[in-house]
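dumping this here before i forget
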Amino acid sequence: MAVRNRFGELHQEIAAWRQDMHENPELLFDTHRTSGFVSSKLREFGCDDVVTGIGRTGVVGLIKGRKCKSGKVIGLRADMDALPIKEATGLKYASKNEGKMHACGHDGHTAMLLGAAKHLSETRNYDGTVAVIFQPAEEGGGGGKEMVEDGLMDRFHIQEVYGLHNMPGMPPDEFAIRPGPFFAAADTFTIRVTGNGGHAANPHEGIDTTLVTSHIVIALQSIVSRNLNPIKALVVSVTSFQTETDAFNVISEHAILKGTVRALNEDVRTFAESRLVAITKSTVAAFGAIAEVDYVRGYPVMINSEAETEHAADAARRVTGKVDTNTEQIMGAEDFSFMLNSRSGSYILLGNGDSAPVHHPKYNFNDEAIPAGCSWWVEVAESRMPVC
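structure:
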């Protein structure tokens, strides 16, 4: 079985939905227009039930198969939110909302799942129920967590859940997946250093927070290079260094570091946090300064279930025959991890062609990927709930 012919027929219509969403991006949980568009389409398709307000602005549509004897419910999830980026594509459907942009392809994910929902509503060729899940606030807001905490899995009796994300640099008819840890946990840290400021001509009379904080930046690099087993993956990145003055002749009394920690293993994640705190405290003590460390755990490691990953890969093989089942792990984060912590399931990548990378002001979702993405979701639903 290849890409469904129906999605060749629907291709331009689905692309038009996608481009409309691209033109009207919304951030985090403020996806009221997008959620309204999605729920309106699901009702138009004839979904058996459309529920809004799950996880604040999330939408769930239920589509019953022509047989429902199995009692099985499969969840298919797409994300809806955009990024706070000023678009630089020059497209005719470029963002009309200044400083907001669909720079990660969530417009494409939502459009493809809507296309799949339309087809599933027409055919209903499965024994069970499909729950199409449209999630807000993937980009840092934890919308997946809020939907789960709002009863997503239990309320709709979801037993397995599957997600898809586009991947620039891969052809738009190719898939990539792996079992086990796939996307990294993402934590943030803020380090506030206090010394004793003064005149830059007399540094010996104070405690120079710029010098102290610079030593912290260098010392934190030893967590990966000298503290961690080199076969394990970890990223510790300092991304911001601020003092309270921009004068040439003032030694600042306070300095602030900010950054992120990425890990593919919970033990490594915990180790990194403890070392970051210990190194910071020891470094400032050596200079007579003090430090406060605020370490915030964000999205957990996203772990694909073994069996469900094989099901997802098999579906991809049937759609295009092109799937890498041992693709590289990714140090970026994905809050689909909260759904996979709640239910077994899997997450797959679909090529976006030779495009700008995600989170780039010139990124654009490749509409040529639409037929393969829609077909994959349909194939997952039908293969996991076959009509006997």
